[in-house]
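Hi F.,

I've been meaning to write this up properly since the lab meeting, where we talked about keeping a consistent format for the predictions we share between groups. The idea is simple: the sequence comes first, exactly as it goes in, then the structure tokens exactly as they come out, then a line or two of notes. No screenshots and no reformatting. I'm using this chain as the first example so we have something concrete to point to.
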Amino acid sequence: MIPNQSGASAPKSLATLQLEPTLRAAIDDIAALRLHRPCIADYAAFIRKPPNVAGIVERARLHGDQVKRFVALADGSPPGVITLHLAALYALVLLNTTATVAVALMPARDGADRHARRQQGQAFIQSLENPEENDLRHLAEIAFGLKERDASQITQDAIAFAGRGHGEEPASSRATLHTIEENVTLRLWLKRQTNIPALLDDARHHGVMADRLAVSLDHDELHPQERDEIAAAHEGALLQHVLALAELALASIAVDTDLIFEAAHASVATRAQLQAGLLIAIAVGQHYRAMLAANPC
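Output, unedited:
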């Protein structure tokens, strides 16, 4: 939850921000989605009851709003003060970016999720440099479901989104919300160390599990209920595999793209949304690291 700042006068620049001294955990949306050493039932439950995509979109939007707020407050602020707050800005950009990639990868639960995903896809495209000709536009159209041309379905999804209870599932995700006032919390989160070998190990583990579950589906004599469980677990393992690779792609430490491609399960190339979402993660991760290198904090 974003801290309550009621009663505080609105800051006019970064220099007049009332910083929040209390440290708290910062968890991005991909980290919140990932399962660690799950069993078959965990994989199946993850895919059968996927997290609320509309909620992820809401977090992306709120962190994006904080980035815009930072830019507005930076106008006229002394350069030294801006530099002091750069880490918070970069952290908020990454929280927004990570949520956007999560939306690109996750399956929609219902019409409200589909509508929210389209909204985030449009926002992502508009954020691109030269969006009409940017190579990422085509990938975004696939990942965010923007190629849907059924006007009736699109209208029904918009109605479902408008009718949903906003904030009805605040506890359904471990992902956290932050403001620019949380300078220390955001700075520490940004400076965290990414364990590249561990992420690769996780991705490969999920890929191995996906293979084992696929073999079980093909060769084991399963009752219908068991087959449904294994099929759901297979999908869950594959999605967890791509989420781990996406987290790797978004790491603050540069990771060889070939390493990500080599670790990717062969079936990712046959799943248009997963492949497009992973390619987006790789591209935005590279762009983010370039921004950090150009303006270190």
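Notes:
Residues 79-105 form the longest helix (27 residues).
The chain has a mean pLDDT of 91.

If this format works for you, I'll send the rest the same way.

G.
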